[in-house]
Amino acid sequence: MLSKTRIKVISFDMDGTLVPTDFVNAVWLEGIPSLYAKKHKISFEKAYEIVTKAYNEVGEHRIEWYYLDYWLKKFDLKITKKELFNMYKDKVKIYKDAEHVIKFLSNRYTLIVSSNAEKDFIWFQLKPLLPYFHHVFSATSDLKEVKKSQEFYGKVCELLKVEPEETVHIGDHLVFDYLNPRKIGINAFLLNRNQHKIGLKVNSLKNLKEILDLLNF
Ligand SMILES: [Mg+2]
Q: Does residue 4 lie in a domain region?
């Protein structure tokens, strides 16, 4: 059980937590390869192979991996980020429980987003929920870090002038949303929507509504 009154800030991961990953996957794994295929007049399959190989060569430990503009430039694709996003706007969805929980909690706590997605991905996907958030932190855009490290969470608490113990974070990645924030004393919960087996004993939630029970609402 969490202390309802001790908690001041509730932080949410975005991909897989507030929104499904369909949109982001479509942009990277459908959009870019199909534009590449068109430009070079090759099959989608061939383009997919080339593009994903290039992604892997850079790898998720380098900041460029996260910057869509870097890839548009690298592959010389004549499209803007916005045009590419709009191609897949039908895939943008917010989880039902997220909408409910965010609206309910926004009058009671300071809500923030702590994501490693690039800011533009966040704005585009969370548009209807943005008014409920006090602040959006992007590890890659704001702090130039590729992953949400304990330093990232430390900086977030410092900027918001709260103690880690006064903060809750919820997200679906064991290391970046659970173990790292826990290291500095944040009350982190692992969101496990599909009830995957986890090798460790963790404080997990099946859905976001469970946080309301833990806060005793
Ligand atoms: Mg996530």
A: no
Report if residue 1 sits inside a domain.
no
Q: How far is the CA of 159 from the centre of ligand 1 (A)?
A: 22
- Calpha distance 70→154 (Å, rounded): 28
**Ligand 1 geometric centre to CA of 114 (Å):** 10
In a domain, 166, yes or no: yes
Q: At a CB cut-off of 8 Å and minimum separation 6, what does 163 contact? A: 157, 185
Q: What is the pTM of this model?
A: 0.93
77 with 122, same domain? Answer: no
Distance from Cα 132 to the centre of ligand 1, integer Å: 19
85 Cα to the center of ligand 1, angstroms: 19
What residues have a C-beta under 5 A from ligand 1, the ion? 13, 15-16, 172
For residue 198, pLDDT over 90 is answered with: no
The answer to whether residues 105 and 179 belong to one domain is: yes
- Whether the pLDDT of residue 147 is over 90: the answer is no
Considering 64, 90, 116, which residue would you say is the last residue of a domain?
Answer: 90
77-129 pLDDT, tens digit each:
999 999 999 999 999 999 999 999 999 999 999 999 999 999 999 999 999 99
Find the domain containing 153 and state its range: 9-20+94-214
Between the alpha carbon of residue 111 and those of residues 4, 23, 213, the distances in Å are 14, 23, 17
